[in-house]
Amino acid sequence: EVHLVQSGAEMKKPGESLKISCKGSGYIFANYWIGWVRQMPGKGLEWMGIIFPGDSDTRYSPSFQGQVTISVDKSISTAYLQWGSLKASDTAIYYCAIYSSNWLDKNWFKSWGQGTLVTVSS
Amino acid sequence: DIQMTQSPSSLSASVGDSVSITCRASQSIVTYLNWYQQKPGKAPELLIYSASALQSGVPSRFTGGGSGTDFTLTISSLQPADFATYYCQQSYSAPHTFGQGTNLEIK
């Protein structure tokens, strides 16, 4: 059975850096795209970007390009989402999720992590 | 980016009713349209992929249809567990944008 387990809630101050994680199990980690989705308080889902662990091919939404970095460590089946300098507007729940195959397009998120709440406040 | 517009944004219905949610894409996405359900405090779950394919384990009262730019999610004979927020997502081309969501509430 596929499991995605995300790191715990974080409380940070504006300007601080942060890296959250998503560990996959129950499947061949390298073979499936892992995406990150933002959900701001009381708002909808936003597709941030996605990475293929097999070759680290990464695609970002223009809205998030340059604002975050997506990476993976295949050796420990873990994907990461990181910020260099957090803003209050980064306060949100962040979900990781895997696509159903090794295609980028024409695909769907078949399994989701439990979400990581990031709170940025002075 | 392809823009996805759902309607309505919110919907009230009773147990046993049938409801439909519409999702419109800003350009043709063929049938590369997915539907997710999200309950409060939980991660989204896949309901339907490729416009009309029912994800394993999802009740048959959920049906999806459409192609090109216009798509519909229909829920027949609403059950208490169905009151949630529903999102469409296009996967025709990255970024794979979501609709803004439809909140289905109990009347």
Put the structure in a nutshell.
The complex is a heterodimer of chains A (122) and B (107). Chain A has 122 residues and is mainly β. Chain A has strands at 3-6, 10-12, 18-25, 34-39, 45-52, 57-60, 69-73, 78-83, 92-99, 109-112, 116-120.
How confident is the prediction overall: mean pLDDT of chain B? Answer: 97
Largest sheet of chain B, in brief, is: 6 strands, mixed
What low-confidence regions of chain B span 5 or more consecutive residues with pLDDT below 50? none
Q: State the shape of chain A.
A: globular
Estimate the helix proportion of chain A, in percent.
under 10%
Percent of residues in beta strands of chain B: over 45%
Count every helix of chain A, treating DSSP H or I runs of 4 or more residues as helices. 0
SSE arrangement:
The complex is a heterodimer of chains A (122) and B (107).
Chain A: E1 3-6, E2 10-12, E3 18-25, E4 34-39, E5 45-52, E6 57-60, E7 69-73, E8 78-83, E9 92-99, E10 109-112, E11 116-120
Parallel strand pairs in A: 2-11
Antiparallel strand pairs in A: 1-3, 3-8, 4-5, 4-9, 5-6, 7-8, 9-10, 9-11
Chain B: E1 4-7, E2 10-13, E3 19-25, E4 33-38, E5 45-49, E6 53-54, E7 62-67, E8 70-75, E9 85-90, E10 102-106
Parallel strand pairs in B: 2-10
Antiparallel strand pairs in B: 1-3, 3-8, 4-5, 4-9, 5-6, 7-8, 9-10
Written account of the structure:
The complex is a heterodimer of chains A (122) and B (107). By secondary structure, chain A is mainly beta. Helices cover 0% and strands 50% of the residues of chain A. Chain A has strands spanning 3-6, 10-12, 18-25, 34-39, 45-52, 57-60, 69-73, 78-83, 92-99, 109-112, 116-120. In chain A, strands 2, 4, 5, 6, 9, 10 and 11 form a 7-stranded mixed beta sheet that branches. In chain A, strand 5 (45-52) and strand 6 (57-60) form a beta hairpin. The model of chain A has no long low-confidence stretch (mean pLDDT 97). Chain B is mainly beta and 107 residues long. Helix content of chain B is 0%, strand content 48%. Chain B has no helices and 10 strands. Chain B has strands at 4-7, 10-13, 19-25, 33-38, 45-49, 53-54, 62-67, 70-75, 85-90, 102-106. A 6-stranded mixed beta sheet of chain B has the order 2-10-9-4-5-6, with no helix packed on it. Chain B is globular. The termini of chain B are far apart. The relative contact order of chain B is 0.34. The mean pLDDT of chain B is 97. Chain A binds chain B through residues 35, 37, 44-47, 49-50, 59-63, 95, 97, 100, 104-110, 112-115, and chain B through 1, 32, 34, 36, 38, 43-46, 49-50, 55, 85, 87, 89, 91-101.
